[in-house]
Design brief:
With 415 residues, the chain is mostly helical. It has 18 helices and no strands. It is 74% helix and 0% strand. The radius of gyration is 21 Å and the shape is globular.
């Protein structure tokens, strides 16, 4: 074993053995999965950017009810990811679950413009988040299946970049169509049906599972969660690390609330999310590609340093441009860390348990997000907005300390 492995460093292939590491060298399936994510995110964000207003003004429900609907929806997605990950490992078929997940989200889109009660909206959000949960872990596992290990950082970065493009195009299109269609929100919701259909259609014809998955289709892992016992310590440390990152970041809804808190007009508040996602999208692929060449620990620490700076800026914000600057840094932090954490999950789990590994990771991160958001909201109400972001900076500092102590190793290096 080479010396760097004995010290617990991540494995890197020799330069002469590495595949074409340029963006053009990535498998076509990664581009297809990224495009699928882009279309579905355009559709989802087009709806979600207007849904709170629709629920409060058109349906006349309370803010507490809106919070309950959104909280249950996100919790449902997190729990579902575990089961879909285990199923994808058991059946050795990931594309079927992707089509099911994206398909469920697509069929909910016509429900929103037709909704006449909060019950209809709740049902649509619930099914939509089940769809998100079903597709999440199998998709991340499939990326690892079809990408050479030396290019996984770039692959996760590219998919996340395309996903983030959809995340800022959706709200922009919502603003444009609201003005164009005469402020009729129901009509704008109908527009979201089109990219959802395109997403499922492109997934069906543009994504193929690798041949090895087809050849090993009969070799199924036992459908049981005890299979997670095969996951090694370094994987569980990555899960813990992801939870710490989430606790440091909490929900990005607090960026919007902070913008409103410092006096930004309500009509311009969604621009905060556009700024965040523009920089997230622009930096996600370069950051992912850098993870294939440089130390993951170094990049994670830099990502946390950026988050600490963002939190401090948001904590002390007094005018709108402070919040926009904080959102910019927030997006850069996401770019530096999200794809890299996915790469670490793939690298520290055996191939036959990748779906399970991503499902558990997403579940723990989802629970951490819920807890972090509750803590952030409580501190906001009891102490004030600055305390919320100072707490985030503190969690980020704890996570950075953990990274400096812990060095994740690939699954291959552990055997």
């Amino acid at each position: 074993m080479p010396p760097e492995h004995s010290r617990g460093a991540m494995m890197k292939p020799p330069d002469d053995a590495a595949p074409d590491a340029s963006i053009r060298g990535l498998p076509s399936g990664i581009w297809a999965l990224g495009t699928v994510s882009l279309f579905m995110d355009i559709s989802s964000e087009l709806v979600h950017s207007l849904l709170p207003i629709f629920m409060s003004t058109v349906l006349g429900v309370s803010m507490a009810t809106i919070g309950f609907v959104e909280g249950i929806a996100e919790a449902t997605a997190s729990v579902t990811k575990v089961f879909s990950g285990v199923l994808s490992d058991h059946f050795r078929k990931r594309k079927f679950l992707l089509i099911l997940g994206y398909g469920l989200s697509a069929i909910t889109k016509p429900v929103f413009p037709l909704a006449t009660s909060i019950g209809s909206v709740f049902a649509a959000r619930f099914v939509d988040r089940i769809g998100k949960g079903i597709r999440g872990a199998p998709r991340d596992a499939l990326i690892a299946d079809i990408t050479p290990p030396a290019m996984r950082g770039a692959a996760y970065g590219l998919r996340q970049a395309l996903d983030s493009v959809g995340a800022f195009l959706g709200p922009l299109l919502a603003v444009a169509f609201v003005a164009w269609l005469g402020y009729h929100i129901r009509n704008v919701f109908w527009v979201a049906v089109v990219p959802a259909i395109l997403s499922v259609g492109w997934l069906t014809i543009g994504v193929r599972e690798p041949e090895k998955s087809q050849a090993n289709a009969g070799k199924r892992t036992r459908f049981a969660f005890p299979g997670a016992k095969q996951l090694r310590l370094h994987y569980w440390l990555v899960v813990l690390l992801g939870a710490l990152f989430t606790m440091a970041r909490f929900s990005d809804a607090f960026l919007v609330l902070r913008a409103q808190n410092v006096g930004l007009a309500i009509g311009y508040v969604p621009a905060v999310m556009v700024v965040m996602n523009v920089f997230y999208s622009a930096a996600a692929y370069p950051a992912g590609a850098a993870a294939d060449r440089f130390s993951p620990r170094t990049l994670l620490v830099w990502g946390l340093a950026i988050l600490i700076l963002a939190d401090l800026l948001l904590a002390t914000a007094t005018v709108a441009w402070h919040v926009f600057s904080g959102a910019l840094l927030w997006g850069l932090h996401m770019a530096f860390t999200q794809g890299l954490l996915s790469k670490l999950v793939a690298d520290t789990a055996p191939a036959e348990l990748r779906g399970t590994a991503f499902g558990i990771f997403n579940l723990v991160s989802g629970v951490a997000l819920l807890l972090a958001s509750v803590v952030a909201g409580t501190m906001w109400d009891l102490i004030g907005p600055p305390a919320t972001f100072m707490a985030g900076a503190s969690f980020a500092a704890i996570a950075a300390t953990g990274i400096l102590v812990f060095r994740p190793r690939s699954y291959a290096a552990q055997n």
